[in-house]
Write a structure and sequence with these properties.
0% strand
């Protein structure tokens, strides 16, 4: 059995799932698509794709991780880097081994 390629899982599943949650939260806090795209360093077209569930809709997070995403959204609103916040969330997901639940080829069970 092959080892899990966590970077591929992060890029294809985790980051899009985090972004879709962040977009929803930022929108609820009154930001428009242009503001959201600037805050998250993605294009307005990408924001639209997330909102129309063309990206990032396959993964559902636990309540604990959702609370962390809410904290990150608030931090981003205060001016903190979205990339730093997403990296922190990924570290927490790795620590909790949530990535292992997503990766079908993971041997770390």
């Amino acid at each position: 059995m092959l080892n899990c390629l966590t970077q591929k899982v992060e890029l294809n599943y985790i980051i899009p799932a985090i972004r879709i949650n962040l977009i929803s939260l930022l929108e609820k806090r009154g930001l428009n698509d242009a503001d959201i795209s600037r805050k998250l360093n993605i294009t307005k077209a990408a924001v639209s794709q997330y909102k129309h569930k063309k990206r990032g809709h396959k993964i559902k997070f636990s309540k604990e991780i959702e609370k962390e995403i809410i904290k990150s959204a608030d931090s981003i609103l205060k001016g903190n880097s979205s990339n730093a916040e997403i990296n922190n969330l990924i570290k927490k997901l790795k620590k909790s081994r949530y990535i292992c639940l997503i990766c079908k080829e993971c041997e770390c069970k």
